[in-house]
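Notes from the pairing session

We agreed to fold both candidates in a single pass and log them together. This is the raw record for the first candidate, unedited. Please don't reformat it; downstream parsing expects exactly this layout.

Candidate A
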Amino acid sequence: MDLPVRLPTSLRAGMMCRCPRCSQGPLFSGFLEVAPSCEICGLDYGFADPADGPAFFVMTGIGILVMGGWAWWAVAVHPPAWQQYLAILVGLLGGCLATLRPVKAWLIAEQFVHKAGEGHWISLGGHGTGGFVIDRRNPRGPGRSSAGR
């Protein structure tokens, strides 16, 4: 009797930076370089193209958190400027570097789960096709003409 295979959730596979299919093999061959394939199950990672999504989400989220924390801290404590610069620099760099890899892995796992790929158009919208049911040239509606008045 074969037991059903439990696929890892995309969030779990992403946070562990593991293969989205087997959750065993490493997803990365470098810090942010995606490996060619999974060493365990052989899944080809050629589909993975998160582009700039991880960097945008990480910089936006960490930026909001660090700036919010800094603003509260600066008003409540009134630290010297050099401490503020240091805190912001460490917070932004540390936060972005700590979260960029798992967020990229999570987006790759989401692409695998949802079978994301290049967009393919069913119809390129050739003249006379493509979904308009009302003839916009005839204001009286389909089948009506001005001669039948």
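Candidate B (folded immediately after A)
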Amino acid sequence: MATAAEIAGLDPEELVSRIDETRRELFNLRFQLATGQLDDPTRLKYARKDIARLLTELRAREIAEAEGLDLEELPAHLAAARQQAADEASGIVRTSLDDRRARRRAEREAARAEADGDEPGETDEPGADDTAPGDDEVPGDTRAEGADVADDVEDEDR
């Protein structure tokens, strides 16, 4: 997903190629949706919005060219430049939604691993159990392993 500042910095050829690429991606996503293979349906929404952003930028450039304006004079470019300058001055780093989700997922996994006593990124072997043999026994249960429940019923009758 591209931000307005990233899109503003693209060359016209790059802009057109990104539009084509994103349209192909949207086509493939729709095909996956129709065949039931799409894992994340929200990707459709993001692809449509990216196409809209790219087309808006392309149209703004066409209008600016027709009016004889320079690219830096476009309102969207001015706003993006001001926002970028303000972010750099205050030390803010803007990230995409995908980057933020990946960071949160990694933080949750690290917290979960810390709670389990594992190292971050370490996974348990399938079938490996952290419990020792016999840990699943009920405290105070003195029955021998394999004892019949009928024996318990007879003991209660006495």
